[in-house]
Structures are given as C-alpha cells and as structure tokens.
C-alpha cells in the first residue's frame, strides 16, 4: 500500500508537456491468437521522449516524487489517444489495451467524466479500449474495486487483470474485478518449460479461464521452449518479444514466427480445430 500522493501545484513540468504536446511516445505490442496468427488486441506502452526513450518505470518514479502522477497519466492517455486516432481503420479493428496506473483508478478525477470526454474528443469509443488494472492497485476496498470494475464495463471499457501471479493478492483482485482478460505475469512464463509446478498452475488457470469465459493471455514470452509448453497446456493468446517487440506502428508477427507457430500447432496439437 503506498502513501497518499502529494498534489502538484503550479505549472506542468516541462519534461512532461511541451505546450499542449505530451512528451510521451506510444508504442504498440500485439496480443496474438496462436490458432489464427491474428492480433486480438494491442497493448499500448508509453515511453518518455528524450535523447533516448525513457522507460515507464523511470517516468512514473519521477512523477511520484514530484507529485504529478495524475498529470503523467493524462499525458500518456493523450499521447496514446492522439496516436490511435491517426491510425488507419484497418489497425483499429481490435481493442487497445491501456495500463491504468494504480493510483489513478481511485482518483476521483478518473471518474468525473473527463476521461470519457478525452476519448470522445479523439473519436474513440470506450469499446475500443481494454483497461489493464494490476493486482497491486491501491484499491484495498474490495467493494470499491467491484463497483469500479462494473462501472467501467457499463461504460463499454473492457477490463483486464494485468501481471496476474506477480503479487500476493492476485486471487482476491481476480474475484473482485471479474475481468474479461487475465494476463499471466512474465515471472510465471519465464522458463516454464523447466518448472513442472508452474505448468500445473497454468493448466489449472486455463481451465478456470474457460469456465468463467475469460481470455487468458500469457505475457512476456521470449523463447520457443516457453511458447511450445504453454501451447500444450492450452494457452491460446500470447504476447512477448518472441511474437513481436513493441513498435511505433501496430506490428504484425514476423513471417518466421508465423511459420513456426503453424508448425507447432501441427506437431503439438494435432487434433486442434
Ligand atoms: O506490467 P506490464 O505487463 O504492462 O509490462 C509490460 C512491459 O513488459 C513493457 O515495458 C514491455 O516492453 C515489456 N515486455 C513485453 N514483452 C516482453 C518480453 O517478452 N520480455 C520482457 N522482458 N519484457 C517484455
Ligand atoms: Mn500491461
């Protein structure tokens, strides 16, 4: 549980906004259906602009110290929505997954209508977005989380539980948020071919997700060993450097990936549809 955020006073920091331009660049990483090879969505990741791109952990760390977390979050949303609004219609047939910072969901400003207004201004409907919340969200109050999750869905947003398995309260967050998407944390995926215990857990989660009609996504896949084992455990949706790295334009998996994916489908799941 983190301490209450200090509030920023005065002008927005120049490292965050230059005039009305957020100093943030949005990149896209596909979430791919292993059966068809098609993207079912793109996670949108924010990087700070500078001589070199600044990773989000650094941005959010600095914002926290300066008390401008909300302003950073708005800058990320603005950059992402502007970018999405310039994409061709062919890139907008699947939803965009947005990471929602832990402090933001419980901020009254998130729900005061300004978020929907920001979307409308960019011609984007909440149905086009899936909000990724993490189990480390500072929403300790389970009723509040339940209510929030329901309200987001009523507005049309999709809800995903991010980094599932990374923290200590994943199951509690899961039952209270009842997300349509569950994203398995990279820590469970990493080296899974060498960990039978993890394999049993993932298999159980595949069954669980199927019974509650949630889409289970394995994140952070880096090797074919990981991907092959996940496939035999019943994982259908994947994201990670092996599939495609985040890019300025929503990327497709490479032809090489697609060829190996088909081969794996044939050899590992010979009776799959
Ligand atoms: O917490 P969240 O799951 O949103 O984290 C996404 C982060 O993980 C991004 O910064 C993204 O660049 C990174 N990422 C995406 N795919 C991989 C991967 O295959 N390996 C590693 N190490 N990081 C990844
Ligand atoms: Mn995420």
UniProtKB/TrEMBL annotation:
PROSITE patterns: EAL. SUPFAM superfamilies: EAL domain-like (SSF141868). It holds the Pfam family EAL. Residues 5-260 form the EAL domain. This is EAL domain-containing protein. The lineage of its organism: Bacteria, Pseudomonadati, Myxococcota, Myxococcia, Myxococcales. PANTHER family: CYCLIC DI-GMP PHOSPHODIESTERASE PDEF (PTHR33121), SIGNALING PROTEIN (PTHR33121:SF76). It comes from the Bacteria.
């Amino acid at each position: 549980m983190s301490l209450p955020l200090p509030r920023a006073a005065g002008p927005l920091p120049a490292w965050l906004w230059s005039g009305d331009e957020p100093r943030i660049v949005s990149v896209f990483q596909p979430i791919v259906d292993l059966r068809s090879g098609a993207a079912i969505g793109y996670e949108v990741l924010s990087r700070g602009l500078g001589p070199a791109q600044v990773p989000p952990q650094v941005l959010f760390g600095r914002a926290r110290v300066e008390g401008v977390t909300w302003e950073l979050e708005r800058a990320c949303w603005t950059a992402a929505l502007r970018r999405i609004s310039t994409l061709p219609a062919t890139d907008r047939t699947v939803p965009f997954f947005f990471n929602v910072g832990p402090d933001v969901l419980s901020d009254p400003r998130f729900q005061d209508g300004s978020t929907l207004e920001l979307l409308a201004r960019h011609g984007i409907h909440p149905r086009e977005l899936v909000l990724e919340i993490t189990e480390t969200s500072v929403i300790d109050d389970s009723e509040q989380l339940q209510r929030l999750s329901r309200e987001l869905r009523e507005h049309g947003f999709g809800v995903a539980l991010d980094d599932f398995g990374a923290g200590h309260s994943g199951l509690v967050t899961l039952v209270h948020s009842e997300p349509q998407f569950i994203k398995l944390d990279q820590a469970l995926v990493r080296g899974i071919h060498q960990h039978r215990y993890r394999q049993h857990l993932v298999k159980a989660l595949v069954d669980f997700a199927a019974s509650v009609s949630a889409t289970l996504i394995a994140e952070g896949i880096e090797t074919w060993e990981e991907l092959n084992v996940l496939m035999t455990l019943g994982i259908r949706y994947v994201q990670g450097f092996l599939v495609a790295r985040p890019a300025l334009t929503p990327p497709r998996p490479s032809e090489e990936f697609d060829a190996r994916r088909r081969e794996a489908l044939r050899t590992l799941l010979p009776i799959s549809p």
